[in-house]
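#struct-pred

JT: dropping the chains for the assembly here, can someone run the whole complex?
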Amino acid sequence: MRKKIVAGNWKMNTTYQEGIDLALEINKLVIEKANKDVIVVVSPPFTHISEVNKVVDNDRVFVAGQNCATETSGAYTGEISAEMLWSAGADFVILGHSERRSYYGETNELLKIKVKKALEFNLTPIYCVGEVLAEREANNHFDVIKEQTEKVLFDLSKDDFEKVVIAYEPVWAIGTGKTASPEQAQEIHKFIRDLLVSKFGEAAKNTSILYGGSCKPSNAKELFANADVDGGLIGGAALNANDFLAIINAF
Ligand code: 13P
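RK: done, full complex below.
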């Protein structure tokens, strides 16, 4: 069955104590008020992961890293491996976020390795795709998303593919307050699903495809109402526990 997922990407926000306090607040609201059909994920900075994992109810709130290394271990100063994330309690890892692609030069070739590394260490990749504004304006967005999807995921075995979650995040909607319309989101989500079905068959009908980009309590319902939108990857609104809860309950 296709899973509903709402994941909060905290990006480089919160000091250690602020992060733990936010996790505690989210955990309390999720236990008391959240729709139990929704898988809730929080993705704090690396430094907070272990403690966040300890303070939340591990059956209700799952923890994600925001990136992982291409290598397993060794002399790679400053890197965090998939195994380290797993050993600190993470179940998920966000990979290929547009901020990683644009500010840190992450390519589809590199992300293909990261996705495999995450799977090797039992992390569920939340693999992000999405076009920049110029690509959409040039009507290239389908090609860009096709390439990001094919180059990174099409080499996976069917078993591994079934573990992957995808997030469509139009870059022009991230942190801008400009959300994709429900029709735009559905169009791309269906495009991604059809592409995945062409490669992996029926299994792709169970893939969760999340929407990200200025998703908030006021627009989550109309986005999540679409047939191929299975949840959200939330930035700014995930830093406010009440807003995050409202998005979780927007299905
Ligand atoms: P915003 O929700 O702040 O637009 O960020 C979206 C995002 O990048 C989540 O990964």
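JT: nice. The pocket of 1,3-dihydroxyacetonephosphate is lined by residues 9, 97, 169, 174-175, 212-215, 233-237 (CB under 6 Å). Residues 4-248 form a domain with the TIM Barrel fold (CATH 3.20.20.70).
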